[in-house]
Amino acid sequence: MTIKVGDEFPQVQLKYIPFDKSNPDACTSPQILDTKKDFAGKKVVLIGVPGAFSPTCSVQHLPTYVTKASEIKAKGVDKIVCVSGNDFFVMSAWGKDEGVQDKIIMAGDANGELGRATGLSLDLSKVALGPVRLTRFVAIIDNGKVTHLSIEPDPTDVTVTGADNVLSAL
Predict the structure, then answer these.
(1) Are 107 and 14 a contacting pair, CB within 8 Å?
(2) How high is the pLDDT of residue 10?
(3) Which of these is catalytic: 44, 49, 57, 62?
(4) What are the backbone angles phi and psi of residue 41, rounded to the nearest 5°?
(5) 89 φ, ψ (degrees, to nearest 5)
(6) Is the pLDDT assigned to residue 48 strictly greater than 80?
(7) Of the residues 18, 63, 69, 74, which has the fewest C-beta atoms closer than 10 A?
(8) In this model, does residue 105 exceed pLDDT 90?
(9) Largest CA distance in the chain
(10) What distance in Å separates the CA atoms of residue 34 and residue 49, rounded to the nearest whole number?
(11) In terms of pLDDT, which residue wins out, 2 or 52?
Protein backbone atom coordinates (compact mmCIF):
# COMPACT_ATOMS: atom_id res chain seq x y z
CA MET A 1 0.00 0.00 0.00
CA THR A 2 1.33 3.43 -0.97
CA ILE A 3 1.47 6.17 1.64
CA LYS A 4 -0.85 9.10 1.13
CA VAL A 5 -1.43 12.60 2.45
CA GLY A 6 -2.50 12.42 6.09
CA ASP A 7 -0.50 9.26 6.85
CA GLU A 8 2.20 9.06 9.48
CA PHE A 9 5.51 8.66 7.68
CA PRO A 10 6.95 5.20 8.40
CA GLN A 11 10.07 4.76 10.49
CA VAL A 12 13.07 3.78 8.41
CA GLN A 13 16.76 4.24 9.04
CA LEU A 14 18.66 5.66 6.09
CA LYS A 15 22.38 6.37 5.99
CA TYR A 16 24.24 9.39 4.67
CA ILE A 17 27.71 10.94 4.71
CA PRO A 18 27.52 14.44 6.28
CA PHE A 19 29.05 17.32 4.35
CA ASP A 20 32.15 18.73 6.06
CA LYS A 21 32.68 22.43 5.22
CA SER A 22 36.25 22.32 6.54
CA ASN A 23 37.10 19.43 4.21
CA PRO A 24 34.50 19.22 1.42
CA ASP A 25 36.22 16.27 -0.28
CA ALA A 26 36.26 14.15 2.88
CA CYS A 27 34.39 10.90 3.03
CA THR A 28 33.57 10.60 6.71
CA SER A 29 31.71 7.88 8.59
CA PRO A 30 28.08 7.39 7.66
CA GLN A 31 25.38 8.75 9.93
CA ILE A 32 21.91 7.37 10.51
CA LEU A 33 18.87 9.39 9.50
CA ASP A 34 15.94 7.94 11.44
CA THR A 35 12.73 9.13 9.81
CA LYS A 36 10.78 8.95 13.08
CA LYS A 37 13.33 10.62 15.35
CA ASP A 38 14.89 13.06 12.89
CA PHE A 39 11.60 14.17 11.28
CA ALA A 40 9.82 14.72 14.64
CA GLY A 41 8.95 18.38 15.16
CA LYS A 42 10.40 19.30 11.76
CA LYS A 43 9.16 20.11 8.30
CA VAL A 44 11.01 17.96 5.76
CA VAL A 45 11.02 17.83 1.98
CA LEU A 46 11.86 14.28 0.93
CA ILE A 47 12.87 13.77 -2.69
CA GLY A 48 12.88 10.19 -3.98
CA VAL A 49 14.78 9.33 -7.14
CA PRO A 50 15.38 6.03 -8.97
CA GLY A 51 19.16 6.39 -9.19
CA ALA A 52 22.08 8.69 -8.54
CA PHE A 53 23.98 9.92 -11.60
CA SER A 54 21.14 8.87 -13.92
CA PRO A 55 20.31 11.38 -16.68
CA THR A 56 16.88 12.55 -15.50
CA CYS A 57 17.94 12.70 -11.85
CA SER A 58 21.16 14.59 -12.59
CA VAL A 59 19.93 16.95 -15.30
CA GLN A 60 16.26 17.67 -14.54
CA HIS A 61 15.53 16.78 -10.92
CA LEU A 62 18.23 17.27 -8.26
CA PRO A 63 19.63 20.52 -9.77
CA THR A 64 16.28 22.27 -9.26
CA TYR A 65 16.51 21.55 -5.53
CA VAL A 66 20.16 22.61 -5.28
CA THR A 67 19.29 25.92 -6.96
CA LYS A 68 16.12 26.53 -4.91
CA ALA A 69 17.17 25.06 -1.53
CA SER A 70 17.35 28.45 0.19
CA GLU A 71 13.90 29.44 -1.14
CA ILE A 72 12.46 26.15 0.11
CA LYS A 73 14.05 26.54 3.54
CA ALA A 74 12.82 30.15 3.72
CA LYS A 75 9.28 28.72 3.64
CA GLY A 76 9.87 26.96 6.96
CA VAL A 77 11.48 23.71 5.80
CA ASP A 78 14.04 22.38 8.27
CA LYS A 79 15.57 19.64 6.12
CA ILE A 80 15.70 18.68 2.48
CA VAL A 81 16.56 15.03 1.98
CA CYS A 82 17.24 13.31 -1.33
CA VAL A 83 17.09 9.52 -1.22
CA SER A 84 17.83 6.89 -3.82
CA GLY A 85 18.22 3.13 -3.98
CA ASN A 86 21.97 3.63 -4.10
CA ASP A 87 24.31 3.26 -1.14
CA PHE A 88 25.36 6.27 0.96
CA PHE A 89 28.85 6.47 -0.59
CA VAL A 90 27.35 6.81 -4.07
CA MET A 91 24.87 9.39 -2.79
CA SER A 92 27.71 11.37 -1.18
CA ALA A 93 29.73 11.30 -4.42
CA TRP A 94 26.68 12.37 -6.43
CA GLY A 95 26.05 15.23 -4.01
CA LYS A 96 29.65 16.42 -4.39
CA ASP A 97 29.38 16.17 -8.18
CA GLU A 98 26.17 18.23 -8.16
CA GLY A 99 27.48 20.88 -5.71
CA VAL A 100 24.92 20.00 -3.05
CA GLN A 101 27.23 20.80 -0.09
CA ASP A 102 25.09 21.10 3.06
CA LYS A 103 21.90 22.24 1.28
CA ILE A 104 20.47 18.72 0.97
CA ILE A 105 21.08 15.49 2.89
CA MET A 106 21.99 12.82 0.31
CA ALA A 107 20.78 9.53 1.80
CA GLY A 108 20.97 5.97 0.55
CA ASP A 109 18.26 3.31 0.64
CA ALA A 110 20.38 0.51 -0.84
CA ASN A 111 18.33 -2.21 0.86
CA GLY A 112 15.02 -0.78 -0.37
CA GLU A 113 13.55 -0.34 3.11
CA LEU A 114 12.06 3.09 2.42
CA GLY A 115 10.55 1.94 -0.86
CA ARG A 116 8.91 -1.07 0.79
CA ALA A 117 7.70 0.87 3.84
CA THR A 118 6.12 3.62 1.73
CA GLY A 119 4.95 1.59 -1.25
CA LEU A 120 7.05 3.85 -3.46
CA SER A 121 9.36 1.18 -4.83
CA LEU A 122 9.93 0.43 -8.47
CA ASP A 123 11.30 -2.69 -10.19
CA LEU A 124 13.83 -1.60 -12.79
CA SER A 125 15.36 -5.02 -13.41
CA LYS A 126 14.09 -4.93 -17.02
CA VAL A 127 16.56 -2.09 -17.68
CA ALA A 128 19.35 -3.67 -15.58
CA LEU A 129 18.98 -1.26 -12.62
CA GLY A 130 17.75 -3.85 -10.13
CA PRO A 131 14.46 -4.93 -8.63
CA VAL A 132 14.30 -2.46 -5.72
CA ARG A 133 14.51 1.21 -6.64
CA LEU A 134 12.46 4.20 -5.57
CA THR A 135 10.02 5.71 -7.96
CA ARG A 136 10.37 9.45 -8.55
CA PHE A 137 8.42 11.32 -5.87
CA VAL A 138 8.50 14.24 -3.49
CA ALA A 139 6.84 14.41 -0.09
CA ILE A 140 6.43 17.18 2.42
CA ILE A 141 6.45 15.72 5.91
CA ASP A 142 5.43 17.96 8.81
CA ASN A 143 6.14 16.58 12.29
CA GLY A 144 6.07 13.02 10.95
CA LYS A 145 2.85 13.40 8.93
CA VAL A 146 2.67 13.45 5.12
CA THR A 147 1.12 16.78 4.13
CA HIS A 148 1.96 16.65 0.41
CA LEU A 149 2.89 13.80 -1.93
CA SER A 150 3.54 13.94 -5.65
CA ILE A 151 4.49 10.83 -7.60
CA GLU A 152 5.67 11.06 -11.19
CA PRO A 153 3.35 9.17 -13.56
CA ASP A 154 6.46 8.40 -15.65
CA PRO A 155 9.59 8.07 -13.47
CA THR A 156 11.80 8.97 -16.43
CA ASP A 157 10.38 12.51 -16.41
CA VAL A 158 10.02 15.42 -13.97
CA THR A 159 6.57 16.99 -14.29
CA VAL A 160 5.16 17.14 -10.73
CA THR A 161 8.15 16.59 -8.43
CA GLY A 162 10.49 19.48 -9.20
CA ALA A 163 11.42 22.23 -6.77
CA ASP A 164 8.94 24.72 -8.24
CA ASN A 165 6.09 22.29 -7.53
CA VAL A 166 7.27 21.97 -3.90
CA LEU A 167 7.53 25.74 -3.53
CA SER A 168 3.92 26.04 -4.71
CA ALA A 169 2.82 23.35 -2.24
CA LEU A 170 4.53 25.04 0.69
Answers:
(1) yes
(2) 97
(3) 57
(4) 70, 15
(5) -70, -45
(6) yes
(7) 74
(8) yes
(9) 43
(10) 19
(11) 2
